[in-house]
């Protein structure tokens, strides 16, 4: 796929829609997280957000031990791109995917989550055929209400099953409270993580009482990670969106102990129509920015509101007294949700001080399997 820009181009010369990464803000976000947690927990950044080995390697240069993924195809893209330690923070079911995962473990350190004894047996069979060994984490539901077994004895039972499988290694527990990430007040998020931490501690003790060493508890996201760190119950955190931020995360209350991150990811759009005095139309609609977490916001243009999206068009409302954007003018939009927006693009256009300095392929785009 042809890149959407050239090194050395000015931002206003880049064709649209384009996924733009402000490299100064991006670099600062990576350093902010690394400085906040240095020496306290392991960091395993989440590639389901960025889908790009170039991003993962920059995170690892600042101390991350590796990457998380949600799909085998994402893990394959990370390993192919030079990431040597990958955890699939998801359950992998079905013979084709299990075979790929087991074969990939010959090329890198691979982990995966389980919440079913039958899946443990399937993983063991696949790893045995491939002649590899997989790290396996028992996923515990600490409030997400999605995958995972309840805290307590169900975790112990699955851990026993894993330890009895010669091609699997019990690596610990996954305890990720996804619903807590976007609770708007810090007090709400703190209460949710405190409840989760109590479940983690109690279950870890049950494992120890059963003679099962729990090497690691992994979890946490961009909206709560310092709360997990301060609880002492987690050994590893999995933030992803912190590197970019989006309009939905911006609606959260940000206060100590959580550091503040900057918007680094934008969709560059062009005003393609000035059809009325109170509206303008840009060339970035549903196919350019995900709206599952709300509409994009218009960056640093007060009085312009992205109000509605259709397939190829974005509708901007122009407040009374606001200067209307000109036909052909380029605008930066902050996506409502960075992860699915990134999945719409083949390239990051890395910009520093208004000039294109990097073009990074999003190699795990569309990695659904």
In the CATH hierarchy, the architecture of the largest domain is Alpha-Beta Barrel
Helix count equals: 11
Number of strands: 17
- The helix fraction, in percent, is 25-40%
Biggest pleated sheet: 9 strands, mixed
Order of helices and strands: EHEHHEHEHEHEHEHEHEHEEEEEEHEE
Query: What is the CATH homology-level superfamily of the largest domain?
Result: Alanine racemase
Shape, per Cα inertia axes: globular
* Termini gap: 21 Å
Bin the strand percentage.
Answer: 15-25%
Radius of gyration over C-alpha positions, nearest whole angstrom? 22 Å
| CATH class placement of the largest domain | Alpha Beta
Oligomer: single chain
Uncertain runs: none
On the 0 to 100 scale, the average pLDDT is: 97
Structural domain count: 2
What structural category characterises the helix and strand content? alpha/beta
Which descriptors would you attach to this protein?
369 residues, alpha/beta, Lyase, Ornithine Decarboxylase, Chain A, domain 1, TIM Barrel, 9-stranded mixed beta sheet, 8-stranded parallel β-barrel, 25% strand
Notes on the protein architecture:
- It is a single chain.
- By secondary structure, the chain is of the alpha/beta class.
- The protein folds into 2 domains: 1-22 and 246-369, D-serine dehydratase-like domain (Lyase, Ornithine Decarboxylase, Chain A, domain 1, Beta Barrel), CATH 2.40.37; 40-243, TIM Barrel (Alpha-Beta Barrel).
- 30% of the residues lie in helices and 25% in strands.
- It has helices at residues 23-37, 47-50, 53-61, 72-80, 95-104, 117-130, 153-163, 186-209, 225-231, 247-250, 338-342; strands spanning 18-22, 42-46, 66-69, 85-91, 109-114, 134-139, 168-174, 217-219, 236-237, 265-276, 279-282, 297-298, 304-309, 314-318, 330-334, 347-352, 355-361.
- The strands form 2 sheets. Strands 1, 10, 11, 12, 13, 14, 15, 16 and 17 form a 9-stranded mixed sheet that branches. An 8-stranded parallel β-barrel has the order 2-3-4-5-6-7-8-9, surrounded by 6 helices.
- Helix 7 (153-163) links the parallel strand 6 (134-139) and strand 7 (168-174).
- Helix 5 crosses helix 6.
């Amino acid at each position: 796929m042809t890149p959407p820009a050239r090194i050395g181009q000015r931002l206003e010369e880049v064709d649209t829609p384009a996924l733009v990464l402000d490299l100064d803000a991006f670099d600062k976000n990576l350093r902010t997280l690394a400085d906040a947690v240095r020496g306290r927990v392991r960091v395993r950044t989440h590639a389901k957000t960025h889908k790009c080995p170039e991003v993962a390697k920059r995170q690892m240069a600042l101390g991350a031990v590796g990457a998380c993924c949600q799909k085998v195809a994402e893990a394959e893209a990370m390993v192919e791109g030079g990431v040597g330690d990958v955890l699939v923070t998801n359950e992998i079911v079905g013979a084709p995917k299990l075979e790929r995962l087991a074969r990939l473990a010959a090329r890198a350190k691979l982990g995966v989550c389980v919440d079913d004894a039958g899946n443990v047996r399937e993983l063991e069979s696949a790893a045995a055929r491939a002649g590899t060994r997989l790290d396996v984490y028992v996923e515990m539901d600490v409030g997400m209400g999605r995958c995972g077994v309840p805290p307590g004895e169900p975790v112990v039972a699955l851990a026993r099953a894993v330890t009895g499988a010669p091609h699997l290694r019990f690596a610990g527990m996954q305890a990720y409270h996804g619903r807590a990430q976007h609770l708007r007040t810090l007090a709400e998020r703190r209460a949710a993580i405190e409840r989760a931490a109590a479940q983690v501690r109690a279950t870890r003790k049950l494992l120890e009482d059963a003679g099962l060493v729990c090497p690691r508890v992994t979890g946490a996201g961009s909206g709560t990670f310092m709360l997990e760190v301060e609880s002492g119950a987690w050994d590893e955190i999995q933030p992803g969106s912190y590197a970019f931020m989006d309009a939905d995360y911006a609606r959260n209350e940000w206060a100590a102990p959580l550091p503040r991150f900057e918007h680094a990811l934008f969709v560059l759009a062009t005003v393609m129509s000035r059809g009325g005095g109170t509206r303008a139309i840009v060339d970035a609609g549903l196919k350019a920015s995900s709206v599952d977490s709300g509409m994009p916001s218009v960056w640093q243009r007060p009085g312009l509101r992205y109000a509605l999206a259709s397939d190829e068009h974005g509708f901007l409302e122009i407040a009374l007294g606001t200067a209307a954007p000109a036909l052909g003018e380029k605008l930066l939009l902050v996506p409502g949700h960075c992860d699915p927006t990134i999945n719409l693009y083949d390239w990051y256009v890395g910009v520093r001080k208004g000039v294109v300095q990097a073009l990074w392929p999003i190699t795990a785009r569309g990695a659904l399997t």
